Input
Amino acid sequence: MRDESKPATLEQLTSRLRDRTAVIGIVGLGYVGLPLTLRYAEAGFRVLGIDIDGAKVDRLNRGESYIKHIDGAAIARAREHGFEATTDFTRAGEPDALVICVPTPLNAYREPDLSFVLDTADALLPFMRAGQVLSLESTTYPGTTDEELKPRLESRGFTVGRDVFLVFSPEREDPGNPDFHTRTIPKVCGGVTPACLEAGLALYGPAIDRVVPVSSTRAAELTKLLENIHRAVNIGLVNEMKVIADRMDIDIHEVIRAAATKPFGFTPYYPGPGLGGHCIPIDPFYLTWKAREFGLHTRFIELAGEINSDMPHWVIGKVTDALNLRGRSVMGSRVLVLGIAYKKDVEDMRESPSVELMEILRDKGALVDYADPHVPVFPRMREHRFDLKSVELDAPTIASYDVVLLATAHSAFDYDLIRQYAKLIVDTRGVYLTPLPNVVKA
Ligand SMILES: NC(=O)c1ccc[n+]([C@@H]2O[C@H](COP(=O)([O-])OP(=O)(O)OC[C@H]3O[C@@H](n4cnc5c(N)ncnc54)[C@H](O)[C@@H]3O)[C@@H](O)[C@H]2O)c1
Output
């Protein structure tokens, strides 16, 4: 019997999701949207992927992956299960669910740039229909779903919670992590109304092992920010500890390893040459911006940002000092940067501190090369330009550089070979545990 207290649209939607006849629309087929697409296909749903990038869409429709850690075979299998990608937003009425996974960067003033989310919503809106659930997954400040998306749906004449359902469910993808994947990472979900939340739980329940409901979209939005701010602040703390330990001639990595033996109350974070990736250097400032509306300052966020963004300069200071001790200047020295992806074993270069290191070195007159097995050619980036290819790491090549700057500790590097042949190594990742005459820790 039909539950009269529930809108008929919700009953139909949840029953289609339950029996997996619902079609899932994933909008934005990037690092977040593509794994989610594959998960829904694996769970037995037909998925329609929508993206503005025609080249990506063509590759996906040929059953090919364009992201290194995502297997092409999984895309081919999804294609067999009916997955199709398109650039045609007029098809937005076909899916029962529309899940938005588009970028949320900062603008030149380090303020939230919601243009991708809003452009996507505006492109979908004319083609949406009653009975759909719209979920925003892009990381953003609390209030975005309520203040930006809800009024847009209402302007189309929909009543949110009756005709259409609106939720925020942050993504927690961790590319390259072998221990957790889309199905096994619990997913937080908040709805604009109780009916919206019910639609959200029905949407994610069949694909994700554990869905964690929260009372509002704002709570879900702030949950994601808390997670990333927690990381940014703790990385800032450990970077500051590194500078202090270095001045006191103590090895911070030894200290972290020892502290991590405490079985409770301590979580190890590791210092590095700066923050990288699409999330940790950017997301906290979404809250900084929104907090201003409430007359509040986010002091921890800003302090961590200050410390973390100073790290590349601190590392360059170490390179300069180490060269100086060997009677050389940065100007004219040959420098090999090892690892230019922002973290170990991935090819993603977004916000990578290695690029900043390379730029500072180049601006100081060094002759800069790089080696990264995951990035064979230095990619075209909006603000950075290097016309370089990854160099082969053999003994004579390693020995030909004045300094090797270890920025990202990929597993594929032969650290013994590097140690054996490098004149000088500046190690920002604590790879070389014991003191060595040619290794400087930074
Ligand atoms: N990458 C991660 O590990 C990660 C983890 C958690 C959360 N997030 C968040 O998820 C969101 C998406 O990040 P991502 O890493 O997947 O980005 P991405 O750049 O890898 O992918 C975004 C995709 O959206 C497409 N796109 C851009 N504008 C569009 C539009 N108007 N309509 C349709 N498609 C459009 C792009 O072509 C691209 O394929 C961001 O808010 C990010 O902060 C990312």
